[in-house]
Design a protein that fits this description.
199 residues; mainly beta; paralog of FGE (formylglycine-generating enzyme); 4-stranded mixed beta sheet; two-stranded antiparallel sheet; globular
Length: 199
Amino acid sequence: MRTVTCDFTRNGYRLPTEAEWEKAARGGLTLPSGTNATPDRFFPWGNDALYLRIDGNLDGDPPFPFDLYGSLRADVGAPLNASRPFTGPIFGGSLPVGSFPAGRGPYGHDDLMGNIAEWCNDWFGAGYYSDSPDVDPHGPESVLPSIDDFKVLRGDSWYGAYIPAMNAFSVEVGASKRRWATYHFSAPYLGFRVARTSS
């Protein structure tokens, strides 16, 4: 394996840091449109719920009602619900970027929540934010090979809120949920977006 480093002083394309991803999802204290009314928002679109429930039996089979869940804001898998026998993909795969304009983030980014979970540049450190720099943290400097070889992932995916082979040992939801996986892991519900340091 090679060690890859990122020169944040250059203006080429790269993976965003975990902190940059979260700022894109939450916005800063101010936005181009003015003051950010919800800088601690749960989701890129604000604090409105991710899922909505449709009560009732739509097709008559089985002959008892159960709850259907969907979202107008993100391509995400169905949540766990005791009365729903299946939790998982609603659409069965990723959709074209921008298919959920109601889920757009405060800076205009599409699909920060849903579609695919996104790799970040940072190595994962469980307690990193307890002593990280206050401004523009870039994640831990290094990790121990084969023990802590996890990279950060952010955002839920079309596959579901809890994804096999991808850890999510936290109670956070939405924009604050931290996830991680081994850096060589790949799956159709994982991907990335690029960032670029502005001068």
